[in-house]
Amino acid sequence: MFLPEYLDWHYHQCWLKIIVLWRNLSLFPFYYFSVPHHLKTLFSPWKRQLVSMKPGFHFDDFLNVVFFNLFSRIIGACVRTATILYGLTAMLICFILGLIPVLVWPIIPFFSLPLYLSKKPHPKEEAKYLLTLSGRNLKNLALILFNHEEGRFVSSRLGLDPTLVHNYFAREKDTGDFDILNSRLAGKNGSVFLSDLFLYLSESYRPLQSLLEEKKLKNQDIYQTALWFEQLAALVKTPLLFDLQKIKSLPGIGAEWSYGYTVEFDKYAQDLSKHISVFPYLVGRENEVKEIERVLLKSEGNNALIVGEPGIARHILIETLAHRIKIGACPQVLSHKRILSLKMHSLISAKASVNEVKGLVSDILQEAEYAGNITVVIDDFDKFVTSQDNRVDFSDIYSKFAESSVGFIGITTPYAYHRYIEKNPSLNILFEKIDIVPPSKEIVFTELKLSIVPVIEKKYKIIVTYPAISKVIEDSDRFITDIPFPAKAIELLDQSAVFLVSNKKSYTLLPQHVDLFLEQKLKIPLGDLESHEKEKLINLETLMHQQIINQNEAIKLIASSLRRSRLNISSPNKPIGTFLFLGPTGVGKTETAKALSRIYFGKEENMLRFDMSQYQKEEGLERLIGSAKSGLVGELSSALRDHPYSLLLLDEFEKSNKEIFNLFLTLIDEGYISDSLGHKINAKNTIVIATSNAGSLYIKENISKGIFGSELQQKLIDEVMKERIFSPELLNRFDAVVVFTPLSEGHLKEVAKLMLQKLNNRLMSKEISIAITPELVNKLANIGFDQKFGARAINRVIAEEIEDQIAKRILSNTVKKGEEIQIEI
Fold this sequence. Notes:
The chain contains 38 helices and 17 strands. Helix 10 (194-204) packs across helix 11 and helix 17 (344-350) packs across helix 18 (354-371). This is Clp R domain-containing protein. Pfam families: AAA_2 (PF07724), AAA_lid_9 (PF17871), ClpB_D2-small (PF10431). GO terms for molecular function: ATP binding; ATP hydrolysis activity.
């Protein structure tokens, strides 16, 4: 079999490539020197330099015009003719030189044998070759695979040391059952690649399965990581001399001679084809780039309006288009186009008045029109098409030139488009809107693997693992709420890499490093549960009862919700927990919320408190979410944006109006609100607690009748719906409606002790304390047994009488350090 395969390789595969290379090498000078283009434009004026006659006939003017225009064409013809001759000469030389290997190769068989023996197997054949090399032994196959270049990549990108993996399999005595692997291979349709071998081996060889289980990895992790290596290898571009289509699409030498100068325009513009993007590939967004190409190819109305949120890769799409034109990857019609980004702010600052600026804009666009190959990119397009809100209106100028040879690409946001551009009929006719939406997680994952990670690894000299990329996608989606994909994933990956390097933790980025970074940044627990945190979650009810007296049902429901959220069991598309607390004043509703904030978020300051009685008027909704018309910033939207990991407490919730109820319906059910600009604000990492005194008398009446627990809860829900305080739709959205019952005298004594102990904690810094005596506790409990204010009365007495007594004694120097003060009220 060896000889036929070698002869096929020598006479068929290699000779055919040499012939293709000879053809392309011969044609390369033809297109590189732009011979077809120069033949078409042979007598065109040099750089479109022509002059026109003044009004009326003047013989000297006529001679000047004829002479100048003729001279311009002669210069153009001479330079183009010379270029054509250079191209044809180079073409002839390449043709003759390339013919030599074409003729020699068939008559030198066996001289190529060393090359044949050293060549790497084709990816479609490599798996078959390694299977043969393993001798039907799974241990050998594992050693061969993980010693292979792809295997070392797989090991390192799964967070494993390639040397340790080799030693692990070398020590292994289990050779495995090859028939199991063979049965999986038999079920594979089409070619078998190394990534398939990694997957089938992980499903067939027990020692590899044990290794993956120990490292908390899945079979799909090893398969996808191997596939990642193969995808990166596939990105290696075909050499130019093997791609005739790309050779034909090259701009070539002198293509710009047929187009005019843009001296003034270039002062205020950036040539995007010369701008080097940080990330070399735009993966999964080819459809958007081709959509822009389609608009620019139109004979009329070749103006595109890119509409999308910042962070969605709007600018990178245009940079990619410019790069594609430069390397000849676009349709040939676009090969001579220059994509120039016009710096409008520089233009505006260059002149003293708006009219002067308009004159300058008109002049440079006229220069671009005369050049004939300019596509103008205008960022923040909405700022320059209306005079509203301190903007400058150039829409009449844009409309004039948008119908000429100048192509425009405007960039704006959905909100700005609807507010400023959509209402302009002339712009809507001349510009075709292209909506850029956030890419899916799958596309972002691919973009990170193939485009972003190689740059990050090179920049920070680290290795980014496959599980770390998965973690970045998951956590950026959950915790970064103010920017869309892919920007937020790229930002989190970059910040995690900086965190890894700056803390010198490792040179391999693992999922736990992403969690550690976010824990420090957000001050919330993430990652695998430590033993102390497991204990806290298990004993959450006990911890809360140390701060809250009675209210067993409320504490039980809250603790259950927190456990589900921390273990990622509850729905990820809703807030951590949503509760409606119903009960009289002074029974612990607000104190429960404070305690929850202290326990879950670490401090009471993580509680966002809104008194809904202050938002009853017509402007209440605008105060909460803002107003686009007046520019008012929303209090609730700002608070959630600035503190996305917090407890949101809505006091006196029943006083909200219908519009505000509808706002909270969305928040409770879908985990977000929309501000006045239409921006979604994520509230999925928020605990929402609404409190209300609704039904307080009804609660007391039923308790006096001996009705408690779930029966009381259901009767109260029916009562508030009957009284139309809350709608069934709203009540059903909450995770739980929790009834807070009035405190008994015994409960009030416990509350009094707790409040006094908190006072002693505050006095520790002054090295004094108060004596918590049964008499003091009883007096406070009697005061607190107030049917109107409940435990709040105790708090008031402590503040007004006890704290005041202590303050007077400190000021009069009648208390010593370490003294236990006796209090009388």
